[in-house]
Amino acid sequence: MRPFVVSQTADNHDMPEVQESILGQGKSQMTRRTIPAQIRFWRMVRHDGDCWMWQGAVDPKGYGRFNPNGHTMLAHRFAYESAVGPIPEGLQIDHLCRTPGCVNPAHLEVVTNKENSIRGESLNAINARKVRCDYGHPFDDANTYIRPDNGYRQCLTCKVRTRADFHARTGR
Fold first, then answer.
1. Check: CATH 3.90.75 for 1-129?
2. Residues 6 or more apart from 130 whose CB is under 8 A from it?
């Protein structure tokens, strides 16, 4: 299913041709309640380049917010559900373009929370992508210890060296 894209008139007023097609002939009075969510949504999108930027309300992180039916939701989720279909339970939408305000369905992908986190730019995401420790030892099955308390990886070579250095300093 393709997104419902509606062109706006130059003065940004409700479009009579859309009003007539929805309400029938002779009825041009439309309110927020009578304008379908699809039309209200796609009117708030600026199509100028690869990213389709949300022009409505945004949260502090730059993600668009939209209220289709009395409940506010993330604009990119509405765009995905409108264009592609429902988002499976427990999954998230990842912006492949890394632009929080983008609602282009071609830039959105359903992923797990873990995958979305790893693709991000947080310190945890950067560390999760590392294939070597800070001293150049490989993070592989033979040289990686997974801490049971928090799941973090530790280089076994460095762990053994740190423990040996501690015992040499303290005599324990």
1. yes
2. 139
